[in-house]
Write a structure and sequence with these properties.
By secondary structure, the chain is of the alpha/beta class. It has a single domain (4-214), classed as Alpha-Beta Barrel (TIM Barrel), CATH 3.20.20.70. It is built from eight helices and nine strands. It has a nine-stranded mixed sheet. Helix 3 links the parallel strand 4 (70-74) and strand 5. Helix 2 runs parallel beside helix 3 (84-92). The structure holds iron/sulfur cluster. Iron/sulfur cluster (SF4) binds next to loops.
């Protein structure tokens, strides 16, 4: 039986990616192997962050109680939890669930290639503005599935240039969904749109992190 460190579990709307605007059941795990300049969940990564220890059956039970179909496993970095594949496998057997795993791009996903198609990955590419670009596992982009998503959070023009370079190099716009979103307060959405127009980025989507427009940007549990 796996034992997972859960710092938050709640139902809200999905603020990002393919299911943005739909209800989702969030399970947020403690700990991260990165330290991004703009991290908005740093509290969950602290050594003394309060967490509860839950088994996979308890997590699955909570999800079913909520009656919500979309499940988001997030963090921190959820894939760092011991035995996390066991939890993902259990959830994937319930075909009524749609499971999204938000991963930071610094974990090799090769162990998850056999996972079912009701499990999708939203993979960050940490741009220079994050300070964490050197940790990116680029092999993930060689084997990305069409149902997966790559997310770029841009802080400035240099980040936008790097986004285009990575999208082009790995043909991510042809292989998967690609989103660019603004690092909140650092770059204007209209500047991202202008960059997309100027660079003919047809298959790339601007993403607004809608939970930050509904609630205060630093509000927890939403
Ligand atoms: S990967 Fe996510 S949780 Fe980890 S430091 Fe970066 S923004 Fe924070």
């Amino acid at each position: 039986m796996g034992r997972y460190k859960v710092v938050e579990k709640f139902v809200s709307i999905n603020g990002e990616a393919r299911c943005a605007g739909e209800l989702a059941c969030f399970i947020r795990f403690a700990g991260c192997n990165l330290n991004c300049a703009y991290c908005d969940t740093r509290w969950a990564n602290e050594k003394n962050a309060p967490y509860e220890i839950l088994s996979e059956e308890e997590i699955y039970g909570y999800i079913k109680e909520t009656n919500v179909r979309n499940v988001t496993l997030t963090g921190g970095e959820p894939l760092l939890q011991d035995n996390i594949k066991r939890l993902i496998t259990l959830l994937s057997k319930d075909k009524s669930l749609r499971i999204e795993i938000e991963t930071n791009g610094a974990v090799d996903l090769k162990d998850y290639r056999d996972i079912g198609d009701n499990v999708t990955f939203t993979i960050d590419y940490k741009l220079p503005g994050s300070g964490m670009e050197a940790a990116m596992c680029l092999d993930n982009f060689e084997n990305i599935r069409s149902i997966d998503t790559v997310k770029f959070v841009a802080s400035d023009y240099e980040d936008l240039l790097k986004t285009k370079e990575i999208v082009d190099r790995y043909e991510l716009d042809k292989k998967s969904m690609v989103y660019i979103s603004a690092c909140f307060g650092k770059i204007k959405n209209e500047d991202i749109v202008k960059f997309m127009i100027d660079n003919n980025m047809n298959m790339v989507r601007l993403q607004l992190q809608i939970h930050k427009y509904i609630w205060s940007p630093d509000k927890k549990g939403v």
